[in-house]
Amino acid sequence: MADLDVLVVGQVARDLVLLVDDVPEAGRSAPVRRRRELLGGKGANQAVAAAQLGARAGLLGVVGDDEVGEHLLAQARADGIDVAPVVRRRGVRSGLIVDLLDARGHWRYLEDLPPATLLTPADVAGAGAALRAARAVLVQLQQPADAALAAARTAREAGRTVVLDGAPPDPATADALLAAADVLRADARETALLVGEAPGDATAGLAAGRKLVRRGPTLVAVEVPGEGNAFVWPDGQLFLPLSDTPTVDSTGAGDAFVAAPTVALLRGEPAEGAARYAVAAAGATVGHPGGRPALSPGALADQLDRIPAG
Hints:
Strands 4-1-9-10-11-12-13-14 form an eight-stranded mixed sheet, sandwiched between helices. A four-stranded mixed sheet has the order 3-2-7-8. The longest helix is centred in the C-terminal third of the chain and has 14 residues, at 253-266. By secondary structure, the protein is of the alpha/beta class. It has eleven helices and 14 strands.
């Protein structure tokens, strides 16, 4: 396994996207207008995004020893992702996420994610060499707290950049995780878990970001629902509005959003540049169904042109 720019620690699953005009009532049916079957799960989506942005990306997650798991690994390899760290769990079915999306962009998830498809501290220990070698480790915090903390600490102790996506699943580990992080991305619900209240406007978003920077990370991104994202770092702050791109499906925007600044920071971009890259990547993802990113240079350039100068 070659040294990686970004190793993503998170969920791997089959993503079945069904686009319908309207979700039927109980006892009724509806035709599927479009169907996509993809490599999915937040961890895999973030690794795909990093690879599309030109990073050497790897993935640490769990799939079963079934045919679906083999297919997911083949898809990841085709995307240029190093899957050597992925755990193949014997006797376990691989995860499945069904994204039921209506014509108004409203989504409903049906998830079959067996507990055995989550990482354990032993899995993380087995991938210790990969975690210590990657330039950045992106930890998706839907994983169990003990495994997430083990991954973050392993990378931190090796002097690697640690990026956290979400809120720590166990409040008892929140301080330790934040202390190990260089970058934190939190949506409004996750921000409420961390600071006690979801931000209702840009001012509140920036205030929440300042509180979180004091707990360890040197760059924090906080969602303000319906308005945009607040970015805070030790000597600056910035609020960027949402992209004006029409939204078909918002489910993958957060995954692209967190992968993009990770890559930007590795390239030496300042905090403000990384923030703009995050918003551009999210905007480039919402225009198609499914969580899989589509971060072509042209799409990113178009989105960057849409971001107001600040």
